[in-house]
């Protein structure tokens, strides 16, 4: 097995080197930075799906939260906002939300002090409605005020790496909330529920102009290491400055990735890791053995989501732009599933390989299909059918198709991935790492 | 009266149209869920595919010099449905059947359907670009205005909306008769209830699976074309309404066709009611209302419409996981 992994990693290395010669060093370093960030996200999904059999289809939402955290921490402070009534109004809205939450939670516990069940339920519904209306009366004027005056709340002006930490924490917090509500669901229902949550987070961050500037986008998000512009100011040539700056960034990301990988490997082989796999393979038996199934699943869900948040915070600050409307399920959820499935779910080495390989395929399928289309277009012109129109815009779409084909082929011919989980081969032809609900 | 007409136009008619589309999509999802036991994520893109097939057929027809006062889409629809069915059967043969033959679990099939989604989306964009197309380039969209006594506004709806709702109702009746009266329909319900028992009673499961794809894909093409006639044809036409469709299938009870229909309309109406501006209805009492009542009184702002279906879904899953019609819970 290790031999196979070694060969595959050598192949990947050769592929990256070949890309370096074909596309130039700055492009390749950029590819490596982004692929490393995606690898972090893929490790997050591997914790949830590979370790725990949890069906998370809401990566997009966690990624958007992580990106927002980088923006919120890293962008400069907006004195216009802080000098206005905005903070005060937002504070009141926050307070209203807190009071509302307390009332709802309180109404949920009324039966403990002797209220009949039906009365408690009715009061709880009323509490939800009242809290919602109360919150809207506070937040609506605040939003209108901020969007009319300072436009948005700006950032905190802190180092952006703090935003990466915050991204992990925020994503973990949201995951905890979602996990509390949804983790009891059947696996396919969980998939639909998480997709729905991702869509809601997308709608919120896209439309909350006061928080994220919405479609106006935020840029430039700062870097934690010297940027190409800084190197140019120090007298480096333009080409070299990109390589130096991106290499610095790559180094930082690789350190984080390495640390995450090391810790996850240790966790996988620890008693805790064995327990999660036991829960994944048969949660009824694990429950009977006295393992706390729900608590472990919640742990995995939160941990994986935190990695996703950090990964996307890294991506956003690298790209220097946060554009909530550019996020989509295809580019930010499905691609990560392809990475983990193709690489080998349940195996961190596999997820890592899958992330780099699929990101390479994703980026390279555009120029390759452009070349392919140009060639075919040459033939069709030669035989008098005319050229293919809009080759550039069509080639961009090709990569979605290629990715779909890759996952369909992987499921059919290598269902356990390129580097399968060790010990997962007892039942032939079927990946073991699936939720046992449907057994 | 004006307020009443406004309510009719913005809630009753919009809700009916949205609900019909959701119901048609949800029937397919719920049947596939019931028979094949997996959540078919590519259903939205199958709807988009159907709409694009209809579009291409109208182009071919227009290219042959056929023209009519009605949109050509109406005439090519049966052929488009047939082609969509063939495409769906082909996709099943290529991507789902081998996995089923291996005894793969439903989640594997679900992931495969994500792959199919991406392939369909990629292919449609590859062929048609990312622009939007319309069925109404040659003929204008007919708009009916029914005047109401005592109101300056008229009840307004378009011809494709009317045709769509009527066709939906006919399709639902036909499906009802098929499921209740015909031998194949009964066999289908039997397989949904208990596949093993159905198989030992001599029901050909493969035939039932084929039949499920035929019904699901046919209705998907119908829903996609109907949606495209109501708005425009674009590559992400139906992917965006995947969530309400799945919500309808689950809220209605997985495998329950009637539940899917009811829940489809339920979610359609819930969406339009949630974004409806209630202050319009209060306008006649404007003078006697206190000052603090704001001018826009929607339950959720329009841009958060997508959350409505999801909230209904989550509440249903938490309170009654089997759906309103007690669907399969396995």
Keywords:
heterodimer, A: 439 residues, mainly alpha, globular, disordered C terminus, B: 330 residues, two-stranded antiparallel sheet, 11 helices, 2 strands
Separate helix tally of chain B? 11
> So how many helices of chain A?
17
- Low-pLDDT stretches of chain A are 425-439
What is the average of the pLDDT values of chain B?
Answer: 87
Helix proportion range of chain A: over 70%
Coarse shape of chain B: globular
Let me know the number of strands of chain A. 0
Structural class of chain B: mainly alpha
What general form of chain A does the structure show?
globular
Average pLDDT value of chain A?
86
Main β-sheet, spatial strand arrangement of chain B: 1-2
Taken as a percent bin, the fraction of beta residues of chain A is under 5%
Q: Give the N-to-C terminal Cα separation of chain B.
A: 50 Å
Largest sheet of chain A, if any? none
Oligomerization state:
heterodimer
């Amino acid at each position: 097995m290790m031999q196979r992994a070694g060969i595959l990693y050598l192949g990947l290395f050769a592929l990256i080197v070949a890309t370096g010669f074909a596309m130039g060093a700055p492009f390749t370093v950029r590819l490596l930075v982004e692929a490393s960030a995606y690898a972090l996200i893929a490790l997050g999904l591997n914790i949830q799906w590979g370790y725990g059999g949890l069906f998370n289809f809401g990566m997009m939402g966690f990624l958007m939260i992580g990106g927002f955290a980088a923006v919120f921490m890293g962008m400069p402070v907006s004195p216009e906002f802080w000098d206005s009534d905005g903070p005060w109004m937002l504070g009141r809205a926050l307070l209203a939300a807190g009071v509302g939450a307390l009332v709802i939670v309180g109404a949920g516990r009324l039966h403990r002090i002797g209220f009949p069940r039906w009365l408690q339920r009715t009061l709880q519904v009323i509490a939800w409605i009242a809290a919602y209306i109360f919150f809207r009366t506070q937040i609506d004027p605040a939003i209108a005020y901020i969007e009319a005056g300072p436009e948005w709340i700006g950032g905190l002006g802190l180092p952006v790496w703090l935003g990466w930490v915050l991204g992990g924490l925020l994503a973990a917090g949201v995951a905890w909330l979602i996990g509390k509500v949804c983790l009891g669901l059947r696996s396919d229902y969980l998939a639909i529920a998480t997709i729905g949550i991702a869509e809601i987070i997308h709608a919120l961050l896209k439309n909350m102009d006061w928080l994220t500037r919405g479609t106006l986008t935020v840029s430039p998000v700062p870097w934690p290491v010297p940027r190409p512009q800084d190197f140019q100011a120090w007298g480096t040539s333009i080409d070299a400055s990109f390589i130096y700056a991106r290499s610095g960034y790559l180094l930082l990301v690789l350190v984080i990735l390495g640390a995450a990988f090391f810790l996850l490997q240790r966790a996988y082989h620890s008693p805790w890791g064995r327990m999660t796999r036991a829960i994944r393979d048969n949660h009824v038996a694990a429950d009977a053995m006295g393992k706390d199934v729900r608590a472990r699943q919640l742990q995995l869900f939160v941990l994986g989501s935190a990695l996703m948040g950090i990964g996307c915070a890294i991506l956003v600050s690298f790209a220097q732009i946060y554009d909530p409307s550019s996020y989509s399920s295809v580019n930010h959820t499905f691609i990560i599933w392809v990475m983990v499935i193709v690489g080998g779910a349940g195996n961190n080495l596999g997820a890592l390989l899958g992330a780099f390989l699929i990101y390479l395929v994703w980026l390279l399928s555009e120029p390759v299909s452009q070349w392919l289309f140009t060639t075919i277009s040459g033939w069709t012109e030669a035989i008098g059918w005319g050229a293919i129109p809009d080759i550039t815009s069509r080639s961009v779409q090709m990569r979605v198709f290629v990715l779909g084909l890759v996952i369909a082929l992987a499921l059919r011919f290598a269902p356990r991935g390129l580097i399968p989980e060790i010990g997962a081969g007892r039942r032939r032809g079927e990946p073991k790492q699936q939720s046992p609900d449907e057994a | 009266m004006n307020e009443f007409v406004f309510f009719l136009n913005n809630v009753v008619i919009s809700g009916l149209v949205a609900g019909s589309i959701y119901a048609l999509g949800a029937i397919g999802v719920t049947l596939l869920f019931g028979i094949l036991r997996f959540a078919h994520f590519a259903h939205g893109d199958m709807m988009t595919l159907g709409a694009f097939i209809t579009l291409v057929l109208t182009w071919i027809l227009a290219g042959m010099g056929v023209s009519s006062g009605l949109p050509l889409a109406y005439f090519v629809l049966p052929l488009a449905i047939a082609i969509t069915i063939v495409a769906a059967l082909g996709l099943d043969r290529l991507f789902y059947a081998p996995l089923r033959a291996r005894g793969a679990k439903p989640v594997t099939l679900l992931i495969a359907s994500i792959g199919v989604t991406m392939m369909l989306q990629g292919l449609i964009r590859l062929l048609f670009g990312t622009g939007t197309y319309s069925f109404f380039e040659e003929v204008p969209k007919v708009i009916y205005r029914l005047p109401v006594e005592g109101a300056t506004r008229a009840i307004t709806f378009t011809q494709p909306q009317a045709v769509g709702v009527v066709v939906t109702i006919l399709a639902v009746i036909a499906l009802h008769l098929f499921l209740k009266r015909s031998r194949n329909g009964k066999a289908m319900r039997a397989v949904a209830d208990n596949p093993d028992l159905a198989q030992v009673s001599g029901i050909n499961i493969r035939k039932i699976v084929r039949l499920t794809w035929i019904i699901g894909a046919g209705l998907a093409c119908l829903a996609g074309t109907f949606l495209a006639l109501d708005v425009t044809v674009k590559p992400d036409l139906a992917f965006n309404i995947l969530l309400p469709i799945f919500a309808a299938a689950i809220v209605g009870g997985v495998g329950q066709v009637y539940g899917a229909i009811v829940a489809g309309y339920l979610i359609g109406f819930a969406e339009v009611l949630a974004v409806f501006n209630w202050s319009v209805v209060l306008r006649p009492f404007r003078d006697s209302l206190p000052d603090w009542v704001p001018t826009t009184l929607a339950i959720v702002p329009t841009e958060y419409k997508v959350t409505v279906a999801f909230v209904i879904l989550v509440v249903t899953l938490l309170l009654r996981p089997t759906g309103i019609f007690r669907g399969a819970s396995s």
